[in-house]
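Marked as duplicate of an earlier ticket. Keeping the data here for the record.
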Amino acid sequence: MKVKIGNYPNWFGPYQLAEFLCFWAKEEEDEYGMKRKPEWVHNFGEWLAHGSIEKEDLNTRRPFLRKKERAQTKLYDFLTWIHSKRTRKIKVHIDKFDTWSMDYTLAHIILPMLKQLRDTKHGYPHIDDADAPPHLQIKDPGDNWGNEEQLSLFDMPICNPEGISVKKDQWDWILNEMIYAFECKLDDSWEDKYHSGEYDWYSEPCAWDANGKPTLYRMKEGENHTAKTDWVGLKAAQERISNGFRLFGKYYENLWD
């Protein structure tokens, strides 16, 4: 397998062009402490984009509330056309042996990506309460927390009485369960902790033909057989692995940052 996936193409429009042309202009801190180019550079970008300068207000910052769309310059249209021709470069070559154990092959790619997403994420999706462990479930949110529809729409953080950000902790827990499942997929020895002792087996005939020749054997424990298996723990671990893969499938479309 050979996979080469490039970065997403960055948008380069009139405002970015204005900042490029005014490269000497030093950044200034705005009222929120964010560094940005001076206002006149932004106004220059406004002129390049729309042929005029308008003071920003709520309607211009949030396009879905605009009363009317502003006209765009030929330059804006040209830069938009250039951007539409730029695509993310993706090359994937699959060998036949990659699908012999496809689940194992993909785990090598998925596991480090899940770990990076867990460590660098900036948000969390709406999560079904039943997918979280009992201590992270929202049992009685109360009227001041809003209803479920509001929470899924605005993705508002909610806290239990202990002050835990439940939605964030739920997503952290689910990602860790996915990671655990894929770690076990790549670890052939994950079952070893549930086995102890030594095996001592021997075969003993238990059926014979008319000539007295053995036709069937059974396995019996020898004197030095001390092997034991924690079947309860092994079953619990396997159920956790299966649930991790179930969560991966269910929340696959939420694996973004």
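See parent ticket for discussion. Helices lie at 14-21, 39-50, 58-61, 74-85, 102-120, 148-154, 166-186, 231-250.
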